[in-house]
Design goal:
Structural class: alpha/beta
Order of helices and strands: EEEHEHEHEEEHHHHEHEHEEEH
Number of helices: 10
Shape: globular
Number of strands: 13
CATH architecture of the largest domain: 2-Layer Sandwich
Strand order of the largest sheet: 3-2-1-4-5
CATH class of the largest domain: Alpha Beta
Helix content: 25-40%
Length: about 325
């Protein structure tokens, strides 16, 4: 039976899964809304893959994203990698000589610089919502425009108006003001796209050279208005990869394949049937010292699968609540 590799990217807005073969061709991909329930969405995604693909042999599993540690515990991942590494791996697979990666997701954004196939620098913005997918979704809903058509309106603009894009709150207030003074919707949306690109470049690029080839990925890459704004600001063509929306998961699958070929180890993957188990998480506050660490505990079918969050290892180094209690810690 041919072997395949599973990549999982759990983010704040979307949870993405990719299954690729030994030649890095994508067999199946899923883009799912996380909706604040990463475990439920992840297990539902695994069930969907099982229904789509039937019985397949998984040789390696990689996880990434803000929920990568949780996902790794649930599925039995062979490696857990940060988003920078995963996105860089996927981008280089699509465009081997890529120099700059622009990535805008639902709640955060990042920029990655590469030279000779090596990541030389990166920056992330997880604080300001301006320019992220969730902000654009909200503005599209406020204007009663389907988000899929938001960029089309920007392309129809003849004279984009200038919008204050340094802050999501100020940007929305400025948009409302421009509407009330009579500016057209197309010009306001085009101005918003320009403002969000200015904000992105000033916050993340910080005057560093953005060398071509430039790749743009993440859910916002589907917005043709933002793409056009980037190309105007940079004076360069911006490449949108085929799998722009699941590049993190694709990168995790690629890294899982490399890990398998390097080590030859049998996968730790629990199998797709594990998705039908009962999982839950809870938080514990340890009162063993003044740090009062918040410990996260993950349970599967009633058994403790993992804990993390403590500084000293008292909880993360033990497998059962009884053992942790016997060590002298208390939780509430």
């Amino acid at each position: 039976m041919e072997g395949y590799f599973l990549g999982i990217d759990v983010g704040s807005v979307s949870t993405n899964l990719v299954v690729s073969d030994g030649e890095d061709k994508i067999l199946s991909k899923l883009y799912l809304r996380t909706c604040g329930t990463p475990i439920d969405v992840l297990t539902e995604g695994l069930k969907k893959l099982r229904r789509q693909l039937g019985e397949i042999r998984i040789l390696g599993v990689g996880t990434t994203g803000s929920g990568r540690q949780l996902a790794g515990v649930i599925v039995g991942a062979d490696l857990v990698k940060n988003e920078i590494t995963a996105h860089a791996a996927a981008s280089q697979k699509m465009v081997p000589d890529v120099r700059t990666i622009l990535e805008i997701g639902g709640q955060d954004s990042k920029i990655i610089f590469l030279k000779n196939g090596v990541v030389t620098d990166f920056a992330m913005n997880t604080v300001c919502a301006a320019g992220t997918g969730s902000f654009l979704d909200r503005q599209a809903a406020r204007l009663d425009i389907p988000i899929e058509r938001f960029g089309e309106y920007a392309l129809r603009s003849k004279t984009p108006t200038r919008i204050a894009g340094r802050c999501a709150v100020f940007a929305e207030s400025d948009m409302i003001h421009k509407q009330q003074t009579g500016h057209g919707v197309e010009d306001i949306i085009a101005g918003l796209c320009d403002a969000l690109v200015r904000n992105y470049l000033s916050n993340l690029a910080k005057c560093r050279e953005i060398a071509a080839p430039v790749m743009f990925q993440g859910g916002v890459a589907a917005n043709v208005g933002i793409v056009a704004a980037f190309e105007r600001a940079l004076g360069k063509r911006v490449i949108i990869p085929q799998y722009y929306d699941v590049m993190g998961a694709y990168g995790a699958a690629l890294l899982a394949r490399r890990n398998y070929e390097r080590t030859g180890r049998e996968t730790s993957f629990y199998g797709f049937e594990n998705a039908y188990g009962a999982f839950e998480t809870r938080s514990l506050e340890c009162t063993g010292c003044d740090n009062r660490c918040e410990v996260i505990e993950v349970r599967g079918n009633g058994a403790v699968m993992a804990r993390w969050g403590d500084r000293c290892g008292k909880w993360s180094g033990r497998k059962t609540p009884a053992a942790a209690s016997a060590a002298g810690g208390t939780a509430s």
